[in-house]
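queue> pop job 88
queue> type: inverse folding (structure -> sequence)
queue> payload:
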């Protein structure tokens, strides 16, 4: 049974998947459209709204000539929705719904994983600090101008503006970062005092190195081999003997202005260009520059047991800019996107079998296009430092 919804006529439900409803109808000018929306109950779930917002942004970033254009998206509405032109020759709103279903169950609470949480935080940070980027001629089509009748319609949806459902305050991450620095400095000073106090006894050689290193600093290796193994379990050491493989672009040159990031409990260290400020959040680090216009996110997660193919696929597909091009029997995956004018985006996925098990190292990038070579250099750093940990 068809119905009228706002400016859309002959609207009928075509597909329902738990929280998501896909309808078909016609707009004011008679064009066939698809309308993807959340159910009334699911619209009250911030996590579900955030997932829809991120997925619509993903649809814009990965849009190609075979994808139907997004006409309207109101993600701030009480019941958020997105409208896509319905053309049987092109992929429509089903692409967005399939992506939503791949990222989490259609009903019930959404799972929270390190990669998914970090990506949502990075997207929200970038979206909060800039308006939607202008599309290039080859990028996603711009929304069509509204007709006069649509402008006079009180319930007419706005033109496309992709934004997270709720802008988060930047005060909390700043306070967390300042607090972390203060705690780390206190630990370093305390260890220095202990080592200084025991330095007068020539027979005392039991002083241990500090347990953690400040962000951007790689601790020095101790002289005793056994202590070195214990230290590397806590703070990863930069491996000078790592391979020099590339998934694209170039490697950091000797003497390049970089910062080495080494976090306690991580299996590898990595470098970012000077000028980026990084904030650690568990097993992910979000690094920003250019007043938030450029974001590099690096993280890792354990892959239980022998890390079967289905587990690898689930972890890799949680990254944006799908599909990733796989290399080395699927151990490595990479993608780059340049459809949006002035932006360079990409994802990296690396599975490495270390002595204590398999881990998944990943990185995603959304930067201004003049930093594309730096992005490749970070990707190659994460790749090589991860491969160096393989047993």
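queue> result:
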């Amino acid at each position: 049974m068809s119905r009228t919804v706002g400016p859309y006529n002959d609207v009928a439900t075509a597909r329902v998947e738990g929280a998501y409803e896909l309808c078909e109808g016609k707009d004011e000018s008679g064009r066939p459209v698809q309308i993807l929306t959340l159910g009334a109950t699911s619209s009250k779930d911030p996590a579900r709204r955030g997932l829809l917002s991120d997925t619509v942004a993903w649809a814009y970033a990965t849009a190609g000539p075979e994808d139907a254009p997004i006409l309207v998206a109101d993600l701030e509405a009480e019941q958020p929705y997105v409208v896509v032109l319905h053309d049987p020759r092109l992929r429509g709103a089903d692409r967005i719904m399939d992506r939503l279903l791949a990222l989490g169950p259609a009903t019930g609470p959404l799972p929270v994983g390190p990669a998914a949480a970090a990506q949502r935080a990075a997207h929200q940070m970038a979206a909060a600090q800039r308006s939607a980027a202008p599309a290039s001629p080859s990028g996603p089509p711009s929304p069509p101008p509204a007709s006069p009748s649509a402008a006079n319609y009180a319930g007419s949806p706005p033109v496309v503006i992709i934004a997270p459902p709720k802008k988060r305050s930047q005060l909390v991450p700043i306070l967390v970062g300042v607090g972390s620095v203060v705690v780390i400095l206190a630990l370093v000073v305390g260890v220095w005092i202990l080592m200084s106090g025991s330095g007068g006894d020539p027979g005392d050689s039991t002083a241990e190195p500090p347990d953690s290193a400040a962000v951007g600093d790689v601790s020095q290796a101790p002289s005793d081999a056994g202590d070195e193994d214990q230290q590397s379990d806590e703070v990863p050491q930069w491996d000078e003997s790592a391979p020099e493989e590339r998934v694209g672009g170039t490697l950091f040159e000797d003497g390049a202005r970089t910062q080495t990031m080494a976090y306690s409990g991580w299996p590898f260290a990595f470098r970012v260009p000077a000028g980026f400020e990084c904030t650690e959040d568990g097993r992910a680090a979000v690094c920003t520059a250019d007043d938030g216009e450029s974001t590099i996110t690096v993280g890792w997660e354990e892959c239980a047991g022998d890390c079967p193919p289905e587990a690898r696929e689930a972890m890799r597909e949680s990254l944006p800019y799908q599909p990733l091009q796989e290399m080395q029997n699927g151990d490595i995956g990479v993608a780059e996107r340049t459809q949006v004018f002035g932006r360079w985006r990409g994802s990296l996925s690396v599975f490495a079998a270390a002595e204590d098990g398999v881990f998944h190292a990943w990185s995603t990038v959304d930067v201004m296009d003049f930093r594309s070579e730096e992005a490749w250099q970070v990707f190659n750093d994460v790749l090589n430092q991860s491969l160096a940990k393989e047993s």
